[in-house]
Amino acid sequence: MRSLASLLGALALGAVGAVASSCTLSASGGDDGPAFVAAVQSCDTVIIPQSTTLNVSTPMNMTGLSNKHISLQGTVMFPPDIPYWSGHGYYFPFQDQITFWILGGENILLDGGGIIDGVGQPWYDAFAANSTLLRPILLTLFQATTVTVQDITMLNSPEWFNFVNEGQNIVFNQVTLNATSTSKNLAKNTDGWDTYRSDGVIIQNSIINNGDDCVSFKPNSTNMIISNLHCNGSHGISVGSLGQYAGEYDIVANITSMNVYMANAENGARIKAFAGPNVGSGIVKNITFQNFVEFNVDYPIVIDQCYETNATLCAQYPSNTYIQDIIFTDISGTSSGNEKAVVAALTCSPDGRCSDINVANLHLAPPPQYPVANYTCQNVNLTGNAAYLFGSCTTT
Ligand SMILES: *[C@@H]1O[C@H](CO)[C@@H](O)[C@H](O)[C@H]1NC(C)=O
Ligand SMILES: *[C@@H]1O[C@H](CO)[C@@H](O)[C@H](O)[C@H]1NC(C)=O
Ligand SMILES: *[C@@H]1O[C@H](CO)[C@@H](O)[C@H](O)[C@H]1NC(C)=O
Ligand SMILES: *[C@@H]1O[C@H](CO)[C@@H](O)[C@H](O)[C@H]1NC(C)=O
Ligand SMILES: *[C@@H]1O[C@H](CO)[C@@H](O)[C@H](O)[C@H]1NC(C)=O
Ligand SMILES: *[C@@H]1O[C@H](CO)[C@@H](O)[C@H](O)[C@H]1NC(C)=O
Ligand SMILES: *[C@@H]1O[C@H](CO)[C@@H](O)[C@H](O)[C@H]1NC(C)=O
Ligand SMILES: *[C@@H]1O[C@H](CO)[C@@H](O)[C@H](O)[C@H]1NC(C)=O
Ligand SMILES: *[C@@H]1O[C@H](CO)[C@@H](O)[C@H](O)[C@H]1NC(C)=O
Ligand SMILES: *[C@@H]1O[C@H](CO)[C@@H](O)[C@H](O)[C@H]1NC(C)=O
Ligand SMILES: *[C@@H]1O[C@H](CO)[C@@H](O)[C@H](O)[C@H]1NC(C)=O
């Protein structure tokens, strides 16, 4: 049934020439998803006023759009009908994901100061009881070109907050993400952003509190700039994990992450690639982590080219994902002491699979009970003015 949500405003449908149309949405009392999708398809500008909460109870397919402005001043919320969504979210085979909302096309602006609410708490509790539960990503930019998301708050996503899949020229600016569980069950897998098969993504001036990667560059992420992020509670800024799937070749290149504050996190600046039998391959090239300030982070600096593979197996089956031209510079702060005095861990597969790794201006300290910071490394020749901190890295 067509929703009752009304389309008001200066509808210029049928007008001759390029008169911009604007539609204002209101809540219907039932599922507002279909009316929201219809409005975005037929109007140039769609306004969700500040006092309006749209209840979206069916997945939204907003793909193939062109020249659209969604002014979200109010709230879009996804009521947590868990059995429904886990069976009806749009499916992506990459890492077995589903999503509430696909947005794609060209020249799209989503802004307005409003809220996208994933109502995650029941999902966090249900996932604790069912570890195979499919949970929806809050927003997926799919085949999107020249899209800006700015001045938006995203709350309590059941799964990743933002998935950029096959996107180009994408900007996220002044976005606040917050996943907080009020029960003992953590807000797991609530990555801030995951990029995949995408080129030219900027993520900047944003505040994140979540329970997994703050930003994760997944296979085929190129030419991206991350700057001025304040991440709390996350798993860090992560390249990878890469080289997971046998027969696939993953490229992550030309990524700069700078001006990042990272607190209460598992990792700060991280690159991870699988080793072991029956994995994939790839290249990680020209990655810079610059000007990070970290507080209470388990591993402030990480390369793990033996991801989820023990040392014996990693020596036998080194990673086929090569890591080259990496810079870690101007990184300061404190680790958590989670692994005693370790503040940086650069673990490479043997035989020069990591090369041109530069470490400079590192000022990291463990908690006070450990008098000396421990910089660890394996199978890598380091350059840069902080290389001496690591000692010899050629033993295995
Ligand atoms: C949202 O809409 C669905 C479907 O009409 C309805 O069952 C549900 O009660 C509504 N929830 C809210 C919070 O309005
Ligand atoms: C979304 O809509 C487009 C256009 O109608 C269609 O081609 C596409 O298959 C739909 N996507 C999904 C995931 O249903
Ligand atoms: C757990 O979630 C999966 C995937 O969503 C579903 O197929 C399965 O039925 C759920 N198991 C239980 C016990 O609810
Ligand atoms: C996240 O939400 C919690 C609970 O509302 C609040 O205490 C916390 O300050 C918020 N964090 C951020 C970064 O907005
Ligand atoms: C930051 O993360 C810590 C640990 O997860 C949490 O206790 C705290 O509430 C978070 N702070 C904010 C402002 O969200
Ligand atoms: C990444 O891009 C390369 C080069 O275009 C391609 O061969 C490879 O299949 C892509 N990998 C993935 C995971 O899409
Ligand atoms: C990386 O950037 C360089 C310099 O702009 C460019 O030549 C190269 O094609 C880029 N690499 C990829 C994989 O996009
Ligand atoms: C490295 O990547 C940055 C973007 O992050 C780009 O500006 C620069 O041109 C790249 N350098 C090379 C040598 O590809
Ligand atoms: C390393 O992992 C392999 C495969 O899981 C296992 O068979 C082996 O016992 C492990 N070796 C050590 C030293 O833990
Ligand atoms: C380190 O450099 C030496 C001298 O060039 C080279 O023989 C060795 O293979 C390199 N080791 C690694 C792990 O790259
Ligand atoms: C540094 O940490 C590594 C890895 O935990 C450990 O093997 C090594 O003994 C530590 N070195 C010192 C000096 O504590």
Descriptors for this entry?
binds 2-acetamido-2-deoxy-beta-D-glucopyranose, 8% helix, Pectate Lyase C-like, 396 residues, mainly beta, elongated
Mean pLDDT: 94
Shape: elongated
Q: Name the CATH homologous superfamily.
A: Single-stranded right-handed beta-helix, Pectin lyase-like
Low-confidence stretches: 1-16
- Total strands: 27
Structurally, the number of domains stands at 1
Distinct compounds present? 2-acetamido-2-deoxy-beta-D-glucopyranose
Q: Report the end-to-end length measured between terminal Cα atoms.
A: 65 Å
CATH class: Mainly Beta
Strand content: over 45%
Q: Which CATH architecture is right?
A: 3 Solenoid
Radius of gyration: 22 Å
| Main beta sheet strand tally, sense and closure | 24 strands, parallel
Task: Summarize the amount of helix as a percent range.
Answer: under 10%
Number of DSSP helical runs: 4
Which secondary-structure class do the elements indicate? mainly beta
* CATH topology category name: Pectate Lyase C-like
What is this structure's SSE topology?
Layout: E1 22-24, H1 33-42, E2 45-48, E3 53-55, E4 60-72, E5 75-77, H2 82-88, E6 90-92, E7 97-99, E8 101-111, E9 115-117, H3 121-129, E10 136-137, E11 139-155, E12 162-165, E13 168-178, E14 193-196, E15 198-209, E16 215-217, E17 221-232, E18 237-242, E19 249-263, E20 267-274, E21 281-297, E22 299-307, H4 311-316, E23 320-335, E24 342-347, E25 354-365, E26 374-378, E27 382-383
Parallel strand pairs: 1-2, 2-4, 3-5, 4-8, 5-9, 7-10, 8-11, 9-11, 11-12, 11-13, 12-14, 13-15, 14-16, 15-17, 16-18, 17-19, 18-20, 19-21, 20-22, 21-23, 22-24, 23-25, 24-26, 25-27
Antiparallel strand pairs: 6-7
